[in-house]
Please model this.
Amino acid sequence: MSTAPSVPHVPAAREPIKKIAYVKGVFVFLANYILLLLLVCLFVWLNSLRTGGQGFGTYVRENYTTLIYLMASVFMLCVIVFFYYFFEDKRVLGTPKRIWLIFILLETSVLVCYFFSYFFNIYSRPIAMMAMLSLMLIGRRDAIFLNVIFALLLFSVDRFSNFSLYNDYENALNSTPLLVFSSGMVGIFVGSKVKTRLRAFLTGFAICIPIVIMVVCLEYSAGGRIWQLLLFGIEAGIVSVVLFMAFLPVFEVLFNCITDYRLRELTDHDAPLMRELKERAPGTFNHSIVLAHLAEACAIAIDENTALARAAAYYHDVGKLRQPEYFTENQTGYNPHDELSPELSVDIIRSHAKDGYDLIRARHLPAILADVALQHHGTLPIKYFYAKALKMTDGEINIEDFSYAGPKPQTKIAAIIMIADASEAISRTLQSRAPESVDNAVREIIEERMDLDQFDECDITMRDLFAIRKAIVGCLTGVYHSRVQYPKLKLKRKKEEEDE
Ligand SMILES: [Fe+2]
Ligand SMILES: [Fe+2]
Model:
């Protein structure tokens, strides 16, 4: 676990979602409603196998009123989930994959909890697993909401499939919503702060605190058995964390989600694309590392996801891998642009944004990294070749022919990369690295991009831009601080050694 939850993917450009996508979304909701009812049928059937006497059909016939209650309550919960996203984030309703993720999380958790109560005990269920998985895969706010839905869903399912499984635990059964909600909330609050595996393990003990309290309150009259139930409570907290760690990579891969774990793996210097960049475009690789340092500082300054900012910086220029020798940082003397027309040079330079996007998508890496690669130059002109073309011709030149194709940054992270990228490049050309000159250079970069409307499509504020400027200046003056001039002394060996 780590500090920042997953970041939902924002499309490359904010195109309105087509109505057909919403229709598909509604079908996914219906499919999952049916899937949940089938799960309950499975539980009832398993119960009938265990008790031997009563069959599935008989049970359903005898308990049809409870069945109607269950169907109605599960339907209501699905409707509540639908309206939550309708008011909070409509884009989710137009993204069937996201709806599948939400429901498969709920269904897997209900299934796992059922098996734990079937084979062990009602208190042994890993009830916080769903909350922690949602925290990492979807985000904290949605995790809190889904934790409430899960608590109510588990309660409804328990009530109907209460064959003989929970006969001795009527109190626990009635307290399911509170038990699930409280331990899930502990998982969300403690889990958000955890960075190491040891701390993740300790989160398990924090999760079991509300369970243990509930066991004591509900089962105080159980006599000697209470110790066994307390052990089940502790096991529930630890197993919640263990299963969370086991399921997380599966969901990451299945739904191409980004978590801090995945981002950390992607920014490892041995990650396939990073190794390629290091070997084939060492200049770009070094530029990306310095940029990552700046982007992280900016993300901290405006409270954005630092792991994502770092990964976006590492991957923003991977498109240069197609023709690395055409980019200054990878050249050692010979510049192939000297033999090309400005138009051809511009085509090669600006294609690196689209090439980066295609490469990241082709390697099945997170879509948000591809979007940042595509957007990090927005629709800015490539000034060097525009000026070269102006010199070579007397006629009118359309500046758009010498500009990047866009889109403009759609997220704060893309805006950070755009500003930090130019700041890192310009800092290499500055005569003086005094804070005032660096500050002036970064201010000019930001103002130029504002004049060219590059931040029109993202929700970055003036306060954010100020914080970003301060963070970049702080880093650049730190990275390129001046050193004391060492005296030029030629040291000689001691005379005795020379004599030998
Ligand atoms: Fe670039
Ligand atoms: Fe760059």
